[in-house]
């Protein structure tokens, strides 16, 4: 058991070192040719950064954005058909809408 824990620790150390190395030298290049570089992790982090973007700007946009669901929307009018929405509805707004509807119907406490 100690051997597998030691191997895991080495793997995590290699991943951490590889991430730092790629940030300093560019993705894929390494100062030690025998050093493991997790290319999948590097690509995932890069893709995630593009997807998430700058969180501060995104949170400011969300605060100033008008709600997508109208104040007079009903559960049936919103979810009673198979038509797609004209524009994406933020998850938080949809959750709030559903919880409000469930509370009114006594389905959610």
From TrEMBL:
PANTHER family membership: DUF4050 DOMAIN-CONTAINING PROTEIN, OS07G0479600 PROTEIN
Domain of life: Eukaryota
Name by which UniProt lists this protein: Gag1-like clamp domain-containing protein
One protein family per Pfam: clamp_Gag1-like
Feature: compositional bias, Polar residues: 1-10, 23-34
Residue intervals of the Gag1-like clamp domain: 5-109
Ranges of Low complexity composition bias in the record: 11-22
Region (Disordered): 1-34
InterPro entries reported in the protein's UniProt record: Gag1-like_clamp
């Amino acid at each position: 058991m100690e051997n597998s824990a030691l191997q895991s620790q080495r793997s995590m150390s290699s991943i951490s070192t590889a991430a730092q190395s790629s940030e300093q030298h560019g993705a894929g290049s390494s100062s030690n040719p025998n050093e493991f570089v997790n290319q999948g992790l590097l690509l995932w982090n890069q893709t995630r950064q593009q997807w998430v973007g700058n969180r501060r700007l995104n949170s400011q946009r969300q605060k100033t954005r008008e709600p997508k669901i109208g104040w007079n929307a009903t559960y049936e009018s919103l979810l009673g058909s198979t038509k797609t929405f004209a524009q994406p509805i933020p998850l938080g707004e949809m959750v709030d809408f559903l919880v409000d509807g469930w509370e009114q119907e006594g389905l959610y406490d």
